[in-house]
Structures are given as C-alpha cells and as structure tokens.
Known about the structure:
Blueprint: H1 2-11, E1 18-22, H2 28-36, E2 41-44, H3 47-53, E3 62-65, H4 74-77, E4 81-87, H5 90-102, E5 107-113, H6 126-134, E6 142-149, H7 157-177, E7 186-188, H8 195-200, E8 205-208, H9 210-213
Parallel strand pairs: 1-2, 1-8, 2-3, 3-4, 4-5, 5-6, 6-7
This protein binds pyridoxal-5'-phosphate (PLP).
Amino acid sequence: MIKDNLSKIKSGLPSDVKLVAVSKFHPVEELQEAYDAGQRVFGENRPQELAAKVPQLPSDIEWHFIGHLQTNKLKMVLPYAHLVQSVDSSHLLDEINKWGKANGKVINVLLEIHIGAEETKQGFYEEEVLDILFRAEKYANICFCGLMGMASHTDDMDIVRADFQRIAAFKDYLADLFPELDSFKELSIGMSDDYQTAVETGSTMVRIGTAIFGPRQY
Ligand SMILES: *Cc1c(COP(=O)(O)O)cnc(C)c1O
C-alpha cells in the first residue's frame, strides 16, 4: 500500500522534483516499507522522534527536518539532518551557525517563508530574508539552499496557487540578486493536497506525508 502510494506519486512528479516522504507520527516499520520500495528521503518535524528513528533505519537515508526547531534541541537534529527546511528566525540561524562552527560542519538550510494570511504561521517575512542574505557571508557554517513555504490553509486552489506563485517569484528574485549564493536553488512547496499545483508553480521539492503513509498515528 505504501509502495503503491509512492509509485503513484512518483509517476506524477517530474524527475527533477525531490520527493520528501514526511514520516512524522508513523512507526519505523512503515518507514522501512517505504525504504524497501526505494524511497531514500524522509522528513520529520520533532527532534526527539528524528533522533529516535535514525539509528533504527538504514544509514543511507537522507533526513530532512521540517518542524519548528528550538535552539536547545539542535544536537538532536543537526548531526543527522541533511537539510533543515524550517529555519524561521535569525536567532535560530545564529545558533545553527554556532553549532556548525563548534562541530566543524556546514549545515544546509532553507529559510521558511511566511505566506498565507494566518497570523499564527511561522516563518520570515520577505524583508527579513533579504536582511539575512545581504549578510550571508557572516554565516560561514550555513549553506543557504533556498526557501520553504506552506500555502494558506484553504481548499481554494486559486489562493493556494497565488501563494505558491508569490514565493516562487521571490525565490527567483533572490537567486538573481545574490548570484554568489550558488546553492540557493531549492523551492520546497507542496504537500499531499496541493503538490500538483506546487509543481506547476516551480517546486523543486515536495513534502508528502498523508498521501504516502495514510493518516498519522500515535
Ligand atoms: C506534516 C507536514 C507535511 C506533510 O503534510 P501532508 O498533508 O501529510 O502531506 C509537509 N510539510 C510540513 C512542514 C509538515 O509539517
């Protein structure tokens, strides 16, 4: 079943769009099932859950962290995460950079963009992203790989598309403005309900949970 879901989703994705299987709240047996079906990229959103799963699964998995990260939890995430998709504050960025320096690592990050109308949504405003990238060289232990975003929480696909178009245009604008940031390529938009729209809008990375694993457990 997981295998069928994966192959159905993969067959609809362009080959240059990375599929991140969002496995939060699913047991390791199900991740193993996805792994056995060929999936190698997994996304988790809670530090403890990530740190607990990593040693139970094959070592060639590429783990992405996609949740809110508190600075006191960095050591549960940064040793394992190939990409931290959800950097949502300058303070967090500073602390990740410090951790990277102390541990001799360069950490790949996406800056999470605040899109959509909801007040509660985490992430940077566009001006804040500009501020950060203008002083990108200050972050010697960070690799800025692009942007991550979520659309407004609505069934109205016109609104979702407009949110995605805005973030895609902003990413292109930044890539032009900062040509020296040659890793700044990724646009992580699209989840189970809206990934097709995201792909049409320029997504390079979709984060899909429910459509692969079904409803979340425990
Ligand atoms: C849970 C989650 C997803 C996956 O959502 P689905 O609707 O289950 O596909 C994607 N991105 C983030 C940031 C998430 O927290």
